[in-house]
What we know:
Blueprint: E1 5-9, H1 17-27, E2 31-33, E3 43-51, H2 56-62, E4 67-75, E5 85-94, E6 97-106, H3 107-116, H4 125-140, E7 144-153, E8 155-158, E9 174-176
Antiparallel strand pairs: 1-6, 2-8, 3-4, 3-7, 4-5, 5-6, 8-9
Amino acid sequence: MAIKSFKRYEKKYLITQEQYDLLIPKILDYMEFDEHCKNNQNYNIYSIYYDNDNNDVIRHSISKPYYKEKLRLRSYKITSNPDDIVFLELKKKISGIVNKRRIVLTFKQAIDFLEKGIRPCTDDYVNNQVLNEIEYYLSNHDVHPAVFIGYSRKAFFANLSPASTINCPSDKVPLTL
Length: 177
């Protein structure tokens, strides 16, 4: 089952290839590759971010406010079919802590919802709550697809075995490189 809502801390750094090559073996003393890094390889992410004609969402985000939120449509493969699975996400950041709410839909369901207001049917309470939040966001923000970002990622989770000395707020804390 896909995680529908989660909280995490994100730290992003720009490093050189040499720094990366030195860092990975040290990280593996405390962390393990996430389940999507098949054979310890990167995986791809494709996102469409929604904004208005004046780019107010990204302008607000860049200003480093206490609270910000973004709507995005995400996929882990190139979407070429209406039945392909995508994730419609409302990403919120409050005082540096990221909360992401998402629903798993087909590409067609996501586009019908975003462009035509046709709400996907679901009996799941959490899915309905996420849809309510996205509907509220859309009713208060006149947004449309604005930016496509695709990248390759290698993600890690903290390994809190007894030999580990890392101090984390939960048993699995993501780290993305």
